[in-house]
Amino acid sequence: MKKQTFFIALILSLFSLSSRAQQTVISGKWQTPNKDFIEFYSEGSAMIGKQVGTEAENDKKYNNKIVVKELKSVETKVFEGTVVDPKTDKTYHGRFTINESGAQLELKIKLGFLSHNEVWKRVN
Fold first, then answer.
1. Is this model's pTM higher than 0.90 or not?
2. Residue range(s) defining the domain that contains residue 79
3. Which site among 1, 36, 100, 111 is 20 to 30 Å from 27 CA-CA?
């Protein structure tokens, strides 16, 4: 009985470590095609993305706004969560995929039957 409990605890802790390692893959600052800067960080068991800067003068009012929430790893270098349009506060399901080098992040947003794709670039 003790061996089974130990084995289960070991598996759960390894799963937890794997999940945390995946989160660090996406952590950091990324630049969108619109020249906004989004920083991902861990909050509890999920990741959050906050707009921390922009090159567009009109969009500076959206700085410090959460634009990605409930982001979780679904497979290696692939994350899914809620994307928030900072201008309208509309929410969308988003899928983020990090390329092999870790320098680019492809975002795919579902818009009903359509989808919108963007490529973000790591800046740190």
1. no
2. 2-122
3. 111
Domain count, the chain: 1
Counting residues of the chain whose pLDDT is more than 70, the rounded percentage is 81
Task: Give residue 111's pLDDT.
Answer: 86
Buried b (16+ CB within 10 A) or exposed e, 46-55: bbbbbbebbe
CA atoms within 13 A on the CB side of 77: 10
- What CATH number should be reported for the domain holding residue 43? 2.40.128.520
Round to whole Å and give the CA distance between 19 and 11. Answer: 12
**How many angstroms separate the CA atoms of 10 and 46, rounded?**
22
